[in-house]
Amino acid sequence: MNTKEENKVRDIYKQLLEGWNNRDAEAMCEPFAEDGEDNTHHTLVAAKRDDKWCIILFQNTPAQFHGRPHLVQEMTDELRQWMNES
Question: Residue 58 domain-assigned?
Answer without folding.
Answer: yes
